[in-house]
Amino acid sequence: MLLSGPGGDALHDVASRVRVLFAGGKGGVGKTTVASTLALAQARAGRRVLLVSTDPAHNLGHLWERPVGDTPTRLTSGSRGYVDGVEIDPGRTVERHLEEVGRTLRRLMPERLSGEVARHLDLAREAPGTHEAAVLERISEAVETGLAEYDLVVFDTAPSGHTARLMALPETMSAWTEGLLRRQERSARFGAALRGLAHDDADDDGAGGLVGRRDPRAERDGEIRRVLLRRRTRFERLRETLTDPATTSFVLVLAAERLPVLETIELHEQLAKLGVDVGALVVNKRSPAGAGGLLDARRTREGEHLRVLDDALRGIPRAEAELLADDVVGEEGLARFAGLRSSAV
C-alpha cells in the first residue's frame, strides 16, 4: 500500500502540508497513478484538489475511466473534498497562446504590418520553445487558479527531461523578459529624444511642441512596456511559488531499476539547482519479498539499485508500492493502491 508504513506516512505528510505538488520521473514508472492516488487521498481528507496532467501522452482519463479534457472535470466528490481533473491539450494550448500573442501584436503594430504579423505567427507555431512557453502559461494559470479556488494542485508531469526544462522556464523567461524591457526602454528613450528634436525644429512653444498632443509612438511604447511587465510579474510569481518549500514540493517516482534510479538522481540534482523542494521518493512496482524464483532474484537486484539511490539522496523519505497482479484502474483501484480504508470521499 502506497500510503502505509514509514515512507507512506512521510509521503502523506508532504501532500498534506503543501498547496502545489508535482509528481515526476522517467516515463512508464507510474507517475499518473501516484499523482491520482495522492489527489484522491487528499480529497478524502477533506481538501479540494485540482489534478493537472502536463504529459502530452495523457492517462488521467484512462485511469479514472471517464473523459477528461482541457477544462476541469469532476473526477470524484463527496460531502467534504473533491478532485477535478484537467488534461492540458498541447495543440489547443499553442493555438490559444498564439492567438493572445497575435492580438497583442496587432494592437501594437501599424496595420500595414498585419501581413508580417501573420507570417511571424505561422512560423512561431512550429518554432522550438513555442510548445514549452504555451504549456508554461497554462501551468502558471493552473497554479493561480489552484491557489485561489482549491486547497491543493497536483501536477502529473511529462517524463524527466521535459519536466526539468519546464521547471527552469520561469527563471529563463523572466530573464528574457527583463532583457526585452531594457531594450524597449532604451529604444523608447531614443525615440522620444528624436521626436523632441523634431518638434523643437518645427515648433517654438517652449515645450518642444508636445504640450496637449497625442504621441502614438509613446503610447505604443507604454503599452509594450505594460505587456512585458505583466509577463515578468507572472513568471516571477510562478518562480517564487515553485521555489517556496512551504507551498510547493516535488515527488520523484521511479522503478527500482538502473536507468530510472540514475535518471531520478539526475532530476533531483536539476531540481535542487533550481531551488525546488523534493519532499519524497516513490519506488513503484517493487517486487514482493518471499515470492520465490524470478521475483526473489529481481528483488535482490532492486535492492542493489536502491542502495545507489539511498547513497545519493540521503534524508529524502522513500515510500514503496509493490508490483500488483492487476492494473490500478478507477477510484476504487486507486483507493486500494493507496491503502485508504473508506470508499467515501
From TrEMBL:
<protein>
    <submittedName>
        <fullName>Arsenite efflux ATP-binding protein ArsA</fullName>
    </submittedName>
</protein>
<dbReference type="InterPro" id="IPR027417">
    <property type="entry name" value="P-loop_NTPase"/>
</dbReference>
<keyword id="KW-0547">Nucleotide-binding</keyword>
<dbReference type="InterPro" id="IPR016300">
    <property type="entry name" value="ATPase_ArsA/GET3"/>
</dbReference>
<feature type="domain" description="ArsA/GET3 Anion-transporting ATPase-like">
    <location>
        <begin position="19"/>
        <end position="339"/>
    </location>
</feature>
<dbReference type="GO" id="GO:0016887">
    <property type="term" value="F:ATP hydrolysis activity"/>
</dbReference>
<dbReference type="GO" id="GO:0005524">
    <property type="term" value="F:ATP binding"/>
</dbReference>
<keyword id="KW-0067">ATP-binding</keyword>
<comment type="similarity">
    <text>Belongs to the arsA ATPase family.</text>
</comment>
<dbReference type="Pfam" id="PF02374">
    <property type="entry name" value="ArsA_ATPase"/>
</dbReference>
<dbReference type="InterPro" id="IPR025723">
    <property type="entry name" value="ArsA/GET3_ATPase-like"/>
</dbReference>
